[in-house]
Amino acid sequence: MIKYRNGDIWGFENGDHVGCSSSYSDSESGVILGVDGGTTSTICVCIPFSSLHSLPDPSLPILARAVAGCSNHNSVGETAARDTLEQVMAETLLNSGSKRSAVRAVCLGVSGVNHPTDQERILKWLRDIFPSHVKLYVHNDAVAALASGTLGKLHGCVLIAGTGCIACGFAEDGQEARAAGAGPVLGDWGSGYGIAAQALTAVIRAYDGRGPQTLLTNSVLQSLSLSSPDELIGWTYADPSWARIAALVPVVVSCAEDGDQIANKILEDAVQELALSVKAVVRRLCLGGVDGNGSFPVVMVGGVLEANRKWDIGKEVIDCIQKTYPKACPVKPKVEPAVGAALFAWNLLKKETEVNCHR
Amino acid sequence: MIKYRNGDIWGFENGDHVGCSSSYSDSESGVILGVDGGTTSTICVCIPFSSLHSLPDPSLPILARAVAGCSNHNSVGETAARDTLEQVMAETLLNSGSKRSAVRAVCLGVSGVNHPTDQERILKWLRDIFPSHVKLYVHNDAVAALASGTLGKLHGCVLIAGTGCIACGFAEDGQEARAAGAGPVLGDWGSGYGIAAQALTAVIRAYDGRGPQTLLTNSVLQSLSLSSPDELIGWTYADPSWARIAALVPVVVSCAEDGDQIANKILEDAVQELALSVKAVVRRLCLGGVDGNGSFPVVMVGGVLEANRKWDIGKEVIDCIQKTYPKACPVKPKVEPAVGAALFAWNLLKKETEVNCHR
To answer: Please, which domain of life does this record's source organism belong to (chains A, B) (predicted)?
Structure first.
């Protein structure tokens, strides 16, 4: 018996049009929902379960996809995060022509899930939304990103470096480890925010005599339409949003590519920080085996890791990791994290089905 | 003709009791107001002008004193900051038994005054409050702190290290220079906030394998009543106020005194940062003369610079400065910054009076 917590959101299930338009809906095979819940946006996809006998790369059938706003409870609060997640899942199911009774599994990868209590809280209200036979999985959004590079298999390490940064890995036995991902107060210096904040600091230090002159001064001021470094104080006070500050990363890369030593040092430090995060996860999970020469995937996600004109932070990070773990294997995902989340659930469900078949 | 912008605040001036209770009020000699406007509180004092023929140390006659809340426009907005400043000045004058017509000079040292436009904006509305003969001075609160150590003379350098940090100095010719004081995003690593944020980062890094183990882990968790380092993420998100984080400085000092290398390194780095700020100001203003051997005061203010059981950050900072400027002379103020602001105005007024007498 499904509790209808929110009649408006799920009202479409009472209509006649549901269950007619799709060959997957309400069939015995059913569908899987994968969600990538971030601080900027939340994406949900619906994939069929039965049609996939092997891993569906590269032409994966996505039945439906929907996008909503922030679902990080640390940013918008518990209730708003929950409403966003429920809404985006309902919209996706509506678009796919399915009802909740057709759902076989749901995997949520949500940023802000940092502690078992976060996981339990979300699982509790998911249980209120879906029928009891639905398999439910809740993880940090880094898990969805990892699965997007491994096509659903939780093995290896993912490094995300956008506005924030985090390294997250899983061993074959399911053991999990994370490094960084704690926000700017707690020293995520390899993140886009960290890189940009250090560039702003370098401008202030050059201005007040604590540090050497740098090309960053003119470039940063120009990009923010400011006339003097002391105006940066008011600029940062006016709106301390991390994404607004992280948006300066291309300015730092550009100055580094033009030969500025300070900008290059900031990027080199970021490379070391990011590589250190991955190596900490790999060491704790023993992903490289006892001698460190074992092979494992390192899934690379986020704008900071994209290649630029000369600088390629992602490549430098991999080079640095491979000095310790020579067979660390960089992977650029071909599907988005929401699909990764769905494939993760698909994998677990498949295994379970196979076990049941062989009984 | 005085414009009465706020009738309620200044209504007491119409009463008979004003001007009777004090020998200074409304006399030809008059009074001076000094204000120290901070992010935590705002303090105003009223001192007499004529009775002081020489600098009034140590038994300074304070006619009245009043305390109000935050007057940093970056924190509470322009209108609230202005109302707080006007209110605290009115209350002080009321307590001293004087009217605005008795005021000879007003000196405001307000945090958040970082740019000439900040100064001009405040001067403009001060001019609306006080009669046209009143001398008005508006500076950053660091200026009031400097004057509190030099008994009103703007010469030398002040180093403030509490929740935030700033170095600010004046040469004999009135030239001003500042270093740091730009807030945590812009790298004030010698501040109480900076020290504590690095300690929190060290706890996270020890926990996720990026850094070595440290005594800070148990001490920080215990002082915050948390059971695991990953709860620190939620703790910092819940309320990112700088003062709340800076309150952990005693924990860092205590771990350092118990021999923890990480905690000691954090404090040593803070010492270098703070000394670097002072040296940058001294170099730009040439306070040590061409050979660096000239003498100048370094006024030391704020909780971070207080001596502890073993660690004395203030002493270490001075030792570091004296390696470059051997005659840098540390001063611990005997009066509060609001009195420093008043003495600063007193000094300028005295000079002007003497010039007029010798004409």
So the answer is: Eukaryota
